[in-house]
Amino acid sequence: xxxxxxxxxxxxxSLLIWLAPGLAPAVTPSELSNQAQADxxxxxxxxxxxxxxxxxxxxxxxxxxxxxxxSAYWRMxxxxxxxxxxxxxxxxxxxxxxxxxxxxxxxxKVEKPRPLEGPRAVLAKIPFYRFSxxxxxxLVCSAISSVVLFGFLALFxxxxxxxxxxxxxxxxxxxxxxxGQIGGxxxxxxxxxxxxxxxxxxxxxxxxxxxxxxxEELNEGSLVSLKKSQGDFALVKSASGxxxxxxxxxxxxxx
Length: 255
What we know:
By secondary structure, the chain is α+β, with helices and mostly antiparallel strands. The chain has helices at 12-19, 29-41, 45-57, 63-75, 79-92, 97-110, 119-124, 135-159, 162-181; strands spanning 193-197, 202-205, 214-218, 223-230, 233-238, 243-247, 251-253. The longest helix has 25 residues, at 135-159.
């Protein structure tokens, strides 16, 4: 488990906003970032999280920021919040190996790993994630490939050369790849709205009542699929496939 912090949490286009006259806040983003890193190094993890969250409210959103927040939650012993932040970080930075390493470590502690056999075991060793795109990259890829596709189709209709037909096919494949990646890299093992268990040993009950019988207890950090809400309870499906009701306040949704 890598629990260091990353410093590259700014984006140039966002920084330009704060450099504009009359828009500078009382505390600059750079000062907040430096203070957050100092708090983290000093073991003041709650303060570090507060400063990083304030940065996110200013519009500085990227994988490094959520990675840092996840690392701080992990140091505080809050496994659920740590996994939630790392999953959000993966949506922003799907090709970051440190994020995936930390997620794999947490998953091995929270959930029983399912051994893979045969071809699936071989495929699991191939780093397909290196070809993953986040939402912004997917839109750019789709837009560019659309323009290229229609350009080559126009050339093929005009010149009737087989090479243009081949290039059109390749552009179409690139377009399909981009469209398939839209929504980020949040490939999560359960269907529906994903959520993380934030409290230790959360009872999965048979009905939306505190006195309902418990089917099983979900570990903190477990991934569930949120089906619907009813009062203070939520109907979820666990990674094991069981459906039941849990305290809604003990869940953290993954945007």
